[in-house]
Amino acid sequence: MAKYLLLKHYRGAPAPANDVPMEQWTPEELTAHVQYMQDFISRLEGSGEFVDSQGLSQEGTFVRYGGEGRPPVTDGPFAETKDLIAGWIAIDVESRERAFELAGELSAAPGAGGKPIYEWLEVRPFLTEAPTVTE
Amino acid sequence: MNEALLRELVPAVIGVLVRRGADFAEAEDAVQDAMVEAVRVWPDDMPQDPKGWLVTVAWRKFLDAARADTSRRRREVRVETEPSPGPGEAADDTLQLYFLCAHPSLTPASAVALTLRAVGGLTTRQIAQAYLVPEATMAQRISRAKRTVSDVRFNQRGDVATVLRVLYLVFNEGYSGDVDLAAEAIRLTRQLAAKTHHEEVAGLLALMLLHHARRAARTGPDGRLVPLAEQDRSLWDTRLIAEGVDVLQAALMRDRLGEFQAQAAVAALHADARTAAETDWVQIVEWYDELVRLTGNPVARLNRAVAVGEADGPRAGLAALAELDPSLPRYTAAAAYLHERDGDPATAARLYAQAARSAPNLPERDHLTRQAARLNAQLRT
């Protein structure tokens, strides 16, 4: 088994096909979207592939060391210019193909007009695969 | 409270319950419940006959559960219509349990989880911790695995090769949290070797012992990977090496060579060298030839190419490598190593950096990055 992170980008990824901002969806469309995600996670729990899932605030601030004796430097929030992560789902699956299959499924969550949003998901393997003994 | 003893008894107790008519999943649940009770009761009141105690309590748990569910009728009909299994040795039950837990209908991950629980006696929480997943996730995997094998007849003959693959997977997961999976895999393989005289079981046991013997030397105090040639050989566990070599020799005497015996032979040749320079690479190449012949495994071919590089020089190694698919795991790292030995640090540095980007784990990535950095620093001066 190998763990993968499915990263949901607010921006930074190419624009999805169904690119209507969420606040312009109908309440029913939002409810259907949220339900789809919950069902997706329940299925992962049922199949023993679920590791973790978290949503993140849209407010992201970049912070770095400000130099000796100085406060850290903060940048933002300038959400419109930054690559921001909306949240993630971590899975533990048999293969990379399975991770892609699940990401594809997640990307098909319904959005405006009840159509799939075609959301882009970044799929990244964890660096946790045990070192095999080689010589 | 002797947890090791408790875990030792698990497969035999499950076997007894199954022989009395419980199905595998029910027996497994009942034994886990009985273990929880043993952990509670034994420290104050250690039974004279721990196995008998566990069987009694587990059987009671099973009956309690059976009374509460409707499957009882089903089971009664089945027990009624099937001939009752013969008296059979408890040891045979344990062997059956190994086969069942490694059944080909299970995915490797499920087979591993089920083996650790039913044969190894680990709790779901311990297994979840070892694999860094939530306990609920591991519980699901185990119960799905149990459902998958619930229709498999317990006396069906299994495939030793599958069992060995599962045990080797457990071994390679190594170590995390409070369960040392490598030690657990060795314990289970020893148990299996005591019950069957299959030469590849001995081969795998030898391989594990020889690898395990070198574990302390394989990583530095800061967790960094130490390559074989640089390992402090005084840290190798000579007792485990001696045992591994004995087990291997006994297996090789039977003249039925298999993959694990051949791998163990390579490990034994490494363990046998007092310094890296004394390694008998010519013999190692011969064993890799056997491995390639036996398995055709591309990873064996890759390791063979590296060994050829040591035995006949880096040019020969690179020539052997050139015949292989460059997308093989660790191909680039092997190429980097051989180019460095061939006196081309610039190419080696570039390949090490490239290998680092596709490394599957942190220690390996850091090791390869460090190799690239070392060569780049050399090239600048």
Automatic annotation (TrEMBL), chain A:
Belongs to the YciI family. Residues 20-108 form the YCII-related domain. PANTHER family: BLL7171 PROTEIN, BLL7171 PROTEIN-RELATED. This is YCII-related domain-containing protein. The lineage of its organism: Bacteria, Bacillati, Actinomycetota, Actinomycetes, Streptosporangiales. Gene3D superfamilies: Dimeric alpha+beta barrel. It comes from the Bacteria.
From TrEMBL, chain B:
Residues 161-251 form the DUF6596 domain. Residues 98-148 form the RNA polymerase sigma factor 70 region 4 type domain. One of its GO terms (molecular function) is DNA binding. Keywords: Sigma factor, Transcription, Transcription regulation. GO terms for biological process: DNA-templated transcription initiation. The keyword Cytoplasm does not apply. Pfam families: DUF6596, Sigma70_r2, Sigma70_r4_2. Residues 5-69 form the RNA polymerase sigma-70 region domain. The keyword Nucleotide-binding does not apply. Belongs to the sigma-70 factor family. ECF subfamily. This is RNA polymerase sigma factor (Sigma-70 family). It comes from Actinomadura coerulea.
